[in-house]
Design a protein that fits this description.
The chain is built from 5 helices and no strands. The chain is mostly helical. The protein is flat, with a radius of gyration of 14 Å.
């Protein structure tokens, strides 16, 4: 987001994230039905994780290794117990 602002492109991240709510919701429901995502994971929680992780990676200039490890932790947190 900061990189886009530096280039003069204005975006409203809340709008962009909310545009993904329906597709993410459908994916979440399908994954829960398949038993690959924990049943108590809520869409707003998953959206918050995706948004925060993406923003952190961009704003923090995370290395490839840190991004990979962080995604693995998020995926592990969503797995059924």
């Amino acid at each position: 987001m900061g990189l886009l602002a530096e280039e003069g492109t204005e975006i409203e991240p809340g709008d962009q994230i909310m545009a993904l709510a329906d597709p993410f919701g459908a994916l979440l429901e399908a994954a829960q039905r398949a038993g690959t995502v924990r049943a108590d994971a809520r869409l707003d929680e998953v959206m918050a994780l995706v948004a925060a992780t993406g923003h952190g990676a961009v704003a923090g200039g995370w290395s490839d290794d840190l991004r990979r490890r962080t995604v693995e932790l998020v995926k592990d947190a969503l797995r059924p117990r």
